[in-house]
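Dear H.,

Thanks for agreeing to be a second pair of eyes. The structure we're designing against is below in token form, covering all 321 positions.
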């Protein structure tokens, strides 16, 4: 039976729903289309979320889904991928969940390079708890729920991801679903840890960085688009030869530089990509059967006697110090 886009739609409505017009709907549409176009059947996909509006994401899509704890979708996603590397594993977080509460996980996942896709819904506020400033809201910005302008500065997700070692780093825009879908497809195909920071207007609490703000600058002198696509400027994000240190530094430096462009012009698209060995490949060098017999696919008990199939006493012995 051939796959249909509607196969990703669930008939069960989430108990708590996103506000009408929320950017999250654009991300849902882009991811569903990406999975469909890549012909990845729903039963091969697991989506992990944390807490916040983005946490409801797995409730909106018909794949396997796990709604975890605040800031914890990444460790659950990484553990699942390592247990069964044949699954398509995707983690989703809001900016508070991923860049705040889950910040330690964000940093460490980059240097491991496990083959998962991490989508971050960046709306600069904690939407679910009524609009407090999140880690991405910049200094002196003030949204409607704040009594005073932001006393903290915001993090730069792209520069942070680059310095952690993520091997695919991109930024998308929730209302440009066609463009976002193409980025997500490339992130899923990418062999390694992929991060996509998604500018996701919160129509209820972020009254400064709205759809109109992202899309146009209109004043007496200008009528131009604020968001622009890196690929339309000839920007070359991909490291062709990962063994060429000079090229790696050059491509990473240009991505860092681009990541600080914010204001009148904001780039979206892929900032950086490099293909190096994944964590799973490194494990398979130590355990030759890792890909054919990963932990989740091993039989652990005799189906009839129910006794353990493996004697792990030797393993435990070898780990004793
Ligand atoms: Fe979306 Fe904001 Fe509503 Fe949350 S509060 S569902 S982010 S519009
Ligand atoms: Mg948020």
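And this is the sequence the design step returned. I haven't edited it by hand at all.
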């Amino acid at each position: 039976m051939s796959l249909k886009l509607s196969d990703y739609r669930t008939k069960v409505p989430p108990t708590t729903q996103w506000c009408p017009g929320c950017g999250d709907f654009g991300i849902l549409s882009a991811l569903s289309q990406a999975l469909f176009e890549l012909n990845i059947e729903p039963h091969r996909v697991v989506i992990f979320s944390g807490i916040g509006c983005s946490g409801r994401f797995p409730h909106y899509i018909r794949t396997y889904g796990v709604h975890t704890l605040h800031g914890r979708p990444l460790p659950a996603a990484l553990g699942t991928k390592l247990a069964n590397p044949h699954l398509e594993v995707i983690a989703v977080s809001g900016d508070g969940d991923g860049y705040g509460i889950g910040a330690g996980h964000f940093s460490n996942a980059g240097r491991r390079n496990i083959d998962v896709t991490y989508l971050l819904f960046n709306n600069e506020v904690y939407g679910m708890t009524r609009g407090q400033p999140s880690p991405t809201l910049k200094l002196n910005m003030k949204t409607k729920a704040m009594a005073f302008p932001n006393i903290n500065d915001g993090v730069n997700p792209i520069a942070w991801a680059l310095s952690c070692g993520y091997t695919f780093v991109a930024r998308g825009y929730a209302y440009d679903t066609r463009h976002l879908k193409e980025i997500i497809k490339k992130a899923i195909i990418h062999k390694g840890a992929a991060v996509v920071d998604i500018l996701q207007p919160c129509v209820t609490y972020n009254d400064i960085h709205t759809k109109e703000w992202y899309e146009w600058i209109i004043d007496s002198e200008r009528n131009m688009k604020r968001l622009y696509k890196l690929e339309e400027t000839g920007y070359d994000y991909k490291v062709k030869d990962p063994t060429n240190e000079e090229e790696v530094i050059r491509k990473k430096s240009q991505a860092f530089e681009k990541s600080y462009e914010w204001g009148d012009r904001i780039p979206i698209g892929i900032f950086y990509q490099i293909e190096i060995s994944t964590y799973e490949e490194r494990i398979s060098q130590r355990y030759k059967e890792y890909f054919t017999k990963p932990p989740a696919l091993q039989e652990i008990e005799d189906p009839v006697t129910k006794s353990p199939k493996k004697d792990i006493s030797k393993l435990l012995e070898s780990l004793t110090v």
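Two observations from my side: Residues 23 and 240 are 34 Å apart (CA to CA). The chain has a mean pLDDT of 95.

Warmly,
E.
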